[in-house]
Amino acid sequence: MPTHTAIAAIAPGQFDAIQVETEEPGAGQILVKVAYASMIAFDTYITDVGYFVADYPVILGFNASGTVAAVGAGVTSLAVGDRIAGFAIYGQGRKDGPKGTMQEFVVLPAFQCAKVSSNIALDAAATIPDNFITSFYTLFDQLGLPIPSSFPAPSPPPNHDTAILIYGAGSTTGQYALQLLRAAGYTSVAATASPKHHAFLRALGAAHVFDYASPTLAEDVARAIGGDGKFALVLDAISAEGTLARVAQVVRARGSVALLLPIKAGDTVAVGEAGMYQSVPETRNPFAAETKILYVRTFTYAEVCCISSGLILFYFIMMFV
Fold first, then answer.
1. Helical spans, DSSP H, in 166-289
2. Where is the Enoyl reductase (ER) domain (predicted)?
3. What is the pTM of this model?
């Protein structure tokens, strides 16, 4: 069997180029000739601490763009030669799914891929899948907002003035969330970020922008949004112990908070020495008992969400092309 080069974690804190077999696509799969692959924060958890790894080596990368080199049985949505972007949500050190995308060829399920229009460069396309899918899934599945019939929405939704906060909106996931909410017709969306990002986030659709480091964050929010001064829905794009504490100050007691897993010890997306969690530790839970905490696991979204990666990425094309 022919082989090709891949970039893999070979042990915690170590990675290297390795040779792997070039597989044939099975039923419902495509073989992608990778042009570009991008790494995400989760890749650093794998390389730094061996998080989510069953066996080494682990090929890195969750996003890819390139062209379809071969299609498996039953694939009708894509054809050889199509330019695509794809998302490897399974595998990563497991034997039951596709490997990472940082290799010359990768086999992916067709439903995790979408065609890329000719006016989107493949290097840009490789940055889209993970962050856009995470934002879309969190807003329109986990937080329960209705999906518009098209983007931009033909009319505002009935709950268009719901107070929504995107915490960590300067992140790529946060930026996509703001754009999705604006395109869906929501008018009372706020964001937190460093002050240098405030003007840009307003341009993306934020009605209010706050400095996450402000010692008077709760008071700043109350003055700006009126009403009870708190948010009904929050997406925490950082999900660290420090951010949870600040979100707890500004979310309604009966509100909903979506946390992008894993939850990091400390106050940043980086892995601290104290590690990471899959749920809020009971002894460190800053939220009211009535607050609904939603744990977002993007890599397993296809098990609970009827929308495929390819369809979600099609929504991206509808919005931005």
1. 172-184, 198-204, 217-225, 241-250
2. 13-313
3. 0.89
151 phi, psi to nearest 5 deg? -120, 130
Could you give the 3-state DSSP secondary structure of residue 6? strand
| All residues at 6 or more sequence positions from 131 whose CB lies less than 8 Å from its CB, including other chains | 40, 171, 172, 173, 176
Segment (H or E) for 123: helix 122-125
Tell which wins on pLDDT, 204 or 54: 204
CA distance 133 to 299: 10
The structure tokens listed for 136 are 């879309």
- E-strand ranges in the chain read 3-11, 14-21, 29-38, 58-59, 63-71, 83-87, 105-109, 113-115, 164-167, 189-193, 208-211, 231-236, 251-260, 263-264, 276-277, 292-296
CA torsion angle 142 145 147 153 (round to 10): -140
- Does residue 280 register a pLDDT over 70? yes
pLDDT tens readout for residues 41-61: 888 777 777 777 778 888 989
Helix, strand, or coil (residue 18): strand
Paired residues of 264 in beta bridges: 240, 276
Reduce the DSSP state of residue 172 to 3 states and report it: helix
**Spatial separation of the C-alpha atoms in residues 321 and 317, rounded to whole Å:** 5
Exposure string for 270-286, b = 16+ CB within 10 A, e = fewer: ebeeeebbeebeeeeee
Environment class of 21 (CB within 10 Å of its CB; exposed 0-12, middle 13-18, buried 19+):
exposed
| DSSP class of 134 | H
**Cα-to-chain-centroid distance, residue 61:** 14
